[in-house]
């Protein structure tokens, strides 16, 4: 599996309404932290995230989190 591009070395912290989101896993989207289709041909695919209620989310910006779309502090090591 190819390595993703690091979009930024910190999380994208956003207040999110309930809904379905597609988190960019490749790091190439111009619409970070969400997918815009730029992953085509990279071997990486976006991750579907469903939020049942409104909440503030720390989306992973480095694309190396072991917690999927959510920041786990991995940006401190990359």
TrEMBL record:
Tell me what this protein is called.
CDGSH iron-sulfur domain-containing protein
Q: Which organism is it from?
A: Horticoccus luteus
Ranges of residues in domain Iron-binding zinc finger CDGSH type? 9-45, 46-78
What are the GO cellular component annotations?
A: cytoplasm
Q: Which UniProt keywords apply?
A: 2Fe-2S, Iron, Iron-sulfur, Metal-binding
The record's GO molecular-function terms, alphabetically, read: 2 iron, 2 sulfur cluster binding; metal ion binding
């Amino acid at each position: 599996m190819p390595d993703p591009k690091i979009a930024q070395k910190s999380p994208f912290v956003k207040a999110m309404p309930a809904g379905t989101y597609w988190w960019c896993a490749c790091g190439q989207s111009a619409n970070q932290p969400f997918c815009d289709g730029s992953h085509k041909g990279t071997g990486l695919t976006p991750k579907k995230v469903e939020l049942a209620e409104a909440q503030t989310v720390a989306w992973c910006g480095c694309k190396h989190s072991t917690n999927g779309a959510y920041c786990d502090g991995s940006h401190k090591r990359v």
